[in-house]
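Record type: monomer structure entry
Structure origin: computed from sequence
Chain ID: A
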Amino acid sequence: MPSDTSLDFISPGQYMSRYRANSVSLEPELPSVPPKINTSLPAVIKWDKGGANVSISGTFNNWDKKLPLVKR
């Protein structure tokens, strides 16, 4: 082990080992899976081709159900 005077600078290729502390963390553990971040964006869909009731469906909802458009 290097002398106490040489601890100020570690040259490339050298390293110092550090002993593990015998303490217990009181912080809660982080979940192993990060929380899902909502990456959806609002969208404006315009339909000017007529029709009394216009609805949309697509891969965004697995073509599961029709979503009605709102008249403005």
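Annotation 1: The mean pLDDT is 76.
Annotation 2: The two ends are 77 Å apart (CA to CA).
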